[in-house]
Design goal:
Length: about 400
């Protein structure tokens, strides 16, 4: 599966700072020192509706991570999956009486268009669950043969008790985990499971649903968590720098994936930091495909909204914060974009070196994009009030905003 084209990232003078970012597993800030190649895995979409503002906010956060690392003169090895076979996709295809493969391809294509418009840097490896199945099956077999998984009516479940570090990602107690498991795709009440929290690794074929050869397993399809584990281990290995996604993935998805990988390899942890973006609400409730309260990036683009304004609307909120999308949020972003573009359109302006340092400092401090925006606002206000004599300043600001914030002025 191919990703989307990369926008050029301008090279800036000097060098950015190492990233200090919040790690869910320790509930604190950690300073990452990835070495010459930084490794990041971000969980992708299930392509039955794409791309709403909540999605965009999550991928914007991890786009900033890449930009901070690139500014430190590192290379970035970024991997993202597409869950192109799963219950929600199959249910939507059945509801709309369309082929599930065609639906997945259509929505994945739209996601690529949205990411391109928003200037999100693409992953080096963009892998669908279906194409990963040949690598998933051997992992499930290994877990079963090691006694870390068991069969239940043809389905294969992972035993969470096989991982002594289970629970260290989300830091939740068993009661909270059970509630979230039921809400987020698990089946804690299924009779016969050794532990209610045990997640499915391989689902035996169901009538009318797609299935694949499972080797020594029954014909079927993979569970959600093992999909990402197979892709991450194949392309990044253990101990990569950041496992990323929305805050609703901390449990069960990232918790279960970490346990799968740790039992498979005997190493801990799977990722050096687990980084989670906040949720975006609409009309008082979290944007959710199941609720249908969604604002789509593609709809905004069709209505003529500049993608740079959409991106500024996202950047105006700290990535870990939960916030609400409103008409005013977008109006403020459009006005800010107009002010910035007017400021850099002049032939000279106030010196910009301090501004570049401020943007770098803000982003290195747990991706504080709102602080970076305020710094650019100050420079733009000075430009409007009294201008300046530095002929290179507008170009410096334009390149820094593009390179570090992904906004083309």
């Amino acid at each position: 599966m191919h990703a989307w084209p990369a926008s050029e990232v301008p090279a800036l003078l000097g060098q950015g700072r190492d990233l200090r970012i919040h790690d869910t597993a320790t509930d604190g800030l950690v300073t990452l020192d990835p070495g010459p190649v930084a490794r990041i895995y971000v969980c992708g979409i299930t392509p039955y509706d794409a791309t709403h503002i909540g999605h965009a906010a999550t991928y914007n956060a991890f786009d900033l991570v890449q930009r901070v690392w690139l500014d430190t003169k590192r290379q970035v090895h970024y991997v993202q999956n597409v869950t192109d076979v799963d219950d929600p996709l199959l249910e939507r295809a059945q509801r709309d009486n369309v082929d599930w493969v065609a639906l997945a391809e259509q929505e994945t294509a739209l996601f690529r268009e949205d990411m391109t418009a928003l200037r999100m840097l693409p992953p080096q490896h963009y892998i669908g669950a279906v194409e990963a199945i040949p690598g998933i099956v051997p992992l499930v077999e290994r877990l079963r043969d090691a006694g870390a998984a068991y069969e239940l009516e043809g389905d294969i479940y992972f035993s969470v008790e096989s991982d002594p570090n289970f629970g260290k990602v989300s830091r939740l107690d068993a009661a909270a985990m059970r509630l979230l498991s039921a809400e987020r795709g698990g089946d804690p009440d299924r009779p016969g499971k050794k532990n209610p929290l045990d997640p499915m690794l391989w689902m035996a074929a169901r009538e009318g649903e797609p299935s694949w050869d499972g080797g020594s397993l029954r014909r079927g399809r993979p569970g959600w968590h093992i999909e990402c584990v197979a892709i991450a281990l194949d392309h990044l290995g253990m101990g990569f720098d950041i496992q990323g996604g929305g805050s609703d993935l901390a449990f069960p998805h990232h918790e279960m994936g970490a346990s799968h990988a740790q039992v498979l390899t005997g190493e801990f942890p799977m990722a050096k930091a687990y980084v989670h973006a906040g949720m975006v609400a609409l009309h008082g409730e979290k944007m959710s495909k199941s609720k249908g309260n969604l604002v789509f990036v593609s709809t905004l683009r069709r209505e003529g909204v500049d993608p740079a304004a959409i991106r500024l609307a996202l950047l105006a909120h700290h990535y870990r914060a939960d916030w609400e999308w409103t008409d005013q949020v977008l109006e403020d972003a459009v006005a800010r974009l107009d002010r910035w573009r007017a400021a850099v359109s002049r032939p000279d302006g106030p010196p910009a070196e301090t501004l570049v340092a401020e943007i770098r400092e803000a982003l290195a401090n747990d991706l504080d994009a709102p602080a970076a925006l305020v710094a650019v606002d100050r420079w733009a206000a000075l430009q409007q009030e009294r201008g300046g004599t530095d002929e290179g300043a507008p170009g410096v600001v334009s390149r820094a905003v593009d390179a570090l914030l992904g906004v083309a002025l």
